Amino acid sequence: MVMKMLLFLFIVQPAVQDRDHKFLTQAIGEAYKGVECKDGGPFGAVVVRNDEVVVSCHNMVLRNTDPTAHAEVTAIRERLVYGAKAEAAIAIGFDDFIADALRGTGNTV
């Protein structure tokens, strides 16, 4: 059993590395784009679901004069907050707090 598991991991690992490399490369591209546009620091984010990019963004702290506009926060806002449905948030893996906020039924602090 252990031998089969090790063989499986050995075979699957290169494909996983290639996939991760592709998405990390895209996030790095976003980081460069943000710096070139002078939107913010060199940070990019890519949200992936089922091996497909859902959204990719970069840091927007300087452009929006918003210290919370980190790349990952910008990605969440782009995909989930602006016109998104609670079910989309749940499908991507966000918890009920985010879904309730999107529905307007949650307690916001």
UniProtKB/TrEMBL annotation:
Alphabetical keyword list: Signal
Signal sequence bounds: 1-17
Listed GO MF terms: guanosine deaminase activity
InterPro entries membership: CMP_dCMP_dom, Cytidine_deaminase-like
CMP/dCMP-type deaminase domain location: 18-109
Pfam families, per the entry: dCMP_cyt_deam_1
Biological process per Gene Ontology, one example term: purine nucleoside catabolic process
Record-linked PANTHER family: CMP_DCMP-TYPE DEAMINASE DOMAIN-CONTAINING PROTEIN (PTHR11079:SF161), CYTOSINE DEAMINASE FAMILY MEMBER (PTHR11079)
Protein name in UniProt: Guanine deaminase
Organism: Gossypium australe
